[in-house]
Structures are given as C-alpha cells and as structure tokens.
Design a protein that fits this description.
Oligomer: single chain
Order of helices and strands: EHEHEHEHEHHEHHE
CATH topology: Rossmann fold
CATH architecture: 3-Layer(aba) Sandwich
CATH class: Alpha Beta
Number of strands: 7
Structural class: alpha/beta
Strand order of the largest sheet: 3-2-1-4-5-6-7
Number of domains: 1
C-alpha cells in the first residue's frame, strides 16, 4: 500500500555480493519511521466503535482515548454500561459520544455514522465489534429467527457500517473487525456464531483487497476466550466457572489484554498491514 513516504517500485540496481550493502542502495531503506510518541498516536482521530459499552469494545475505547482519539460508542440498550464507558474515556482525557440502537438495521447504521460526523466532523477509524451468541449443541434447535438474528448482528452490521462510513473515510483510514478464534477451530455449541466469525475473516480479507486502492487499511482481531458480559449472558454458572481454562494459558483473557491489538492496527505502526488477523487468544495455535 503506497504512502506519501514510500515509492510503489524501486529503480533497477544490483550488487555483486551477499548479503549486500545498505549504504549503496537507492533509495535507502527507511529504518526510523515518522511515528508519533505514545499517548499521541491517535491525536485528532475520531473512532466509531460498535459494541463499545462494555467488554472488548470498552477496553478499545479507553485505549484509543489514551492515544488521543475522540470516541463514538455505539451500543444496543446497555445504558448504564455505556455511561460508565463514557466516564472512563473522559477520565482518560478524550471526548466520548454515545449512540444507542440496533446495528442489525442498515437505517440505524447510517444514523450512527451521521451522528459521528455531526458531533466530530470526521471519521478515521471504524471498529466493527458488536456481536451476540446463542449456544446450542444441536443444529436442529437453531431456529430461523435465531440464525437470522445472529448473522444480522454479527456480520450484516459490518456491511451496513462500512457502507455508511465509506464516504467519510480517506487515505490512511482504518477498519478493524472483531472475529474470533472460533472462526479457525470451530465450536460445536456455537455453530451459527462461529459461522459468522468465519464470514468476518473472509469479509476482512476481501474488503481489504477492494479498498487497498483507496489506501484504507482493513484488518481484524480474533480473540480467544475473553471475560466479557457476553459470557455470563450465554452460559450456565457451571460453564462460566470453567470458561477459558482450556487454553494453554489456563485462563480467560481480560479486555485490556485484547485492546492493544486494536491500537496497533489503528496506528501508523500497522501501515504495511491490510487483510490480516491478529490472534490474542491465550496461546492456541490456529494456523490462520
């Protein structure tokens, strides 16, 4: 992906010995990038985060705020959690706006993006993070209503949000999607959820190819088991007590341990990455 500091091709040249001399190269390789100092890496940027009221979304909102970004948090109806996220983002030194509604609705996604533009005047980072899951160990028990609801929230929303945001995203903008380790290893009791997460990986890779000509970076994060409200809302008390103990690290991750992956993908450090997936998953090897 070309940037203002990099050529798309190099002039022809050859050296007659290995491993070669850097001082003879034209142009010289750039070893010291023009990166902003920590704490300012997202200064003057505006980020919209779906599912930003709690869990990974909240941690990403706080982490972005600590790097100087203004944050727009989109959430369903968890108003108390959203207000707390707003307080924490402001405590970190940035402004935070709240927008409530169902990301499964294309109409609402357009309204959410427009609200961000109206409040902040621009949009630089879109984090598609909202998701839901309904455990079932039997495909015959997955109703048409559940299937549609899971896909509408988890993957249709990403299409809607990107379509709404794209007119405002310029060169260097970032789209970051939340996938899951289940996209790679599967999950027998989260069949429809895992299917949406696999779709998100394909969506990320395909959208990256489509938008590379506009110098818009599209990447994803595929967390392993993370301690978020989705867990007690999905599983029995007995299952929750064992949650995350099957990964090599023997425990679930905390949202703050996942957020740095999003920060990296949002900043200049990821300038040469698009169509990729990061895997903060407690040590599972998924070969993806």
């Amino acid at each position: 992906m070309p940037t203002s500091d990099n050529q798309t091709s190099m002039p022809p040249q050859h050296q007659n010995h290995q491993p070669g001399d850097e001082y003879l190269m034209q142009p010289h390789p750039q070893s010291s990038p023009k990166l902003l100092a920590p704490g300012t890496r997202l200064s003057q940027k505006v980020a919209l985060i779906t599912g930003g009221d709690s869990g990974i979304g909240r941690a990403v909102a706080i982490a972005f705020a600590k790097e100087g970004a203004t944050v727009v948090v989109v959430y369903l109806d968890e108003h108390e959690d959203a207000v707390e996220t707003q307080r924490l983002v402001r405590e970190a030194g940035s402004e935070c706006w709240l927008v409530s509604g169902d990301v499964g609705s294309e109409k609402f996604c357009k309204e959410a993006v427009q609200a961000a533009i109206d409040k902040c005047g621009r949009l630089d980072i879109l984090v598609n993070n909202a998701a839901q899951q309904f455990p079932s160990s039997d495909i015959e028990k997955i109703t048409e209503e559940q299937l549609e609801k899971t896909f509408r929230t988890n993957i249709f929303s990403m299409f809607h949000m990107v379509k709404a945001a794209l007119p405002y995203l310029v060169s260097g903008a970032r789209i970051i999607n939340t996938a899951s380790v289940t996209a790679y290893r599967g999950s027998g009791h989260l069949l429809d959820y895992s299917a949406t997460k696999g779709a998100i990986v394909a969506f990320t890779r395909s959208l990256a190819q489509q938008l590379v000509k506009h110098e818009i970076h599209v990447n994803a994060v595929a967390p392993g088991p993370v301690w978020t409200p989705l867990i007690p809302a999905s599983f029995s008390a007995e299952e929750v007590a064992k949650f995350g103990t099957n990964v090599p690290m023997g425990r679930p991750g905390q949202p703050y341990e996942i957020a740095p992956s999003y920060v990296f993908l949002a900043t200049d450090g990821a300038d040469y990455m698009t169509g990729q997936v990061l895997h903060p998953n407690g040590g599972e090897i998924i070969n993806g």
